[in-house]
Amino acid sequence: MAILLDRDTRVLCQGMTGWAGSHHVAQMIEYGTQVVAGVTPGKGGRTHLGLPVYDRVADARSETGANASIVFVPPVNAAAAMIEAIEAEIPLVVTVTERVPVLDMVRVRDALRGSGTRLVGANSQGVLAPGICKLGVMATGSERPGVVGVVSRSASLTSEVVAQLTEAGLGQSTTVGVGGDPVHGMSMRDCLELFLADDETKGVVLIGEIGGFEEEEVADFIAQVRPAKPIVSLVVGIHAPRERRMGHAGALTSGGSGDAAAKAAALERAGARIAASAHLVGRTMAEALSGGR
């Protein structure tokens, strides 16, 4: 089964009436996702994409039964949108918005404490349960239902790995883009815990990159629990120059920390299998699941 999403997921979109929200929500609907409402302050009472638009998340949830939200709100107002969804007790919030100010995200993290909300992002490509629900902006076409969970900090590499897993006949149970901004919601460790508890997920791929300490934290967790499920990891940015941001706001090696080689070494010591190259992730997982080296 999938994590985070299922066939009963009912989605509202905060910022649906903007271009990005309109474009991607239309694709989500086409995929089969149950999008039930939009939220744009000041536009309540209208319809957009054939769906009702509300001024407030609480009203949208009350009237439609929405249990997930996707946020397409510009960075300056994105934190307020996330906090509104948290206060409305939306169980799952996925935020696509990139480069939300760090201090704003600190406020969001504070709002999450003690709440029943799981936040994916900001700067997330979303969550995809193949054939069940698409909540995000990821490309589709190569994904297939299967047994491998994918946790990633990189949107483009997620698409590559999904294609490899499908070609290997493994498919995916769920893919989760945790987000590339320095402060965000669910971590790689949080996602791994959910995958390890899911009986239908037989293996997990972790896609990391330079910057931050998430890969080291998930390595500590792997070393602690010694999971029976194989874990394959790819950490990119081996040749990235120091002190230079590489794409994502959080992809920055600074002060001797956050480099790709150290992250890969920590994961390997913990027991994860390290894919030698980006094009070998699918093959490495296939070998791990078959018991080979």
Automatic annotation (TrEMBL):
Q: Name one GO biological process term.
A: tricarboxylic acid cycle
Per its record, what are the GO molecular function terms?
Answer: nucleotide binding; succinate-CoA ligase (ADP-forming) activity; succinate-CoA ligase (GDP-forming) activity
CoA-binding domain location: 4-100
Tell me the enzyme class.
ligase
Q: Which residues form a coiled coil?
A: none
- State the name under which the record lists this protein: Succinyl-CoA synthetase alpha subunit
Per UniProt, the keywords (alphabetical) are:
Ligase, Nucleotide-binding, Tricarboxylic acid cycle
Task: Establish whether keyword Nucleotide-binding is in the entry.
Answer: yes
Give me the Gene Ontology terms describing cellular component. succinate-CoA ligase complex (ADP-forming)
* Alphabetical list of PANTHER family matching this protein: SUCCINATE--COA LIGASE [ADP_GDP-FORMING] SUBUNIT ALPHA, MITOCHONDRIAL, SUCCINYL-COA LIGASE SUBUNIT ALPHA
| Protein family per UniProt | Belongs to the succinate/malate CoA ligase alpha subunit family.
Q: Which residues form the active site?
A: H248 (tele-phosphohistidine intermediate)
Q: Spell out the SUPFAM superfamilies in the cross-references.
A: NAD(P)-binding Rossmann-fold domains, Succinyl-CoA synthetase domains
**What Enzyme Commission number(s) apply to this enzyme?**
6.2.1.5
Concerning Pfam families, the annotation shows: CoA_binding (PF02629), Ligase_CoA (PF00549)
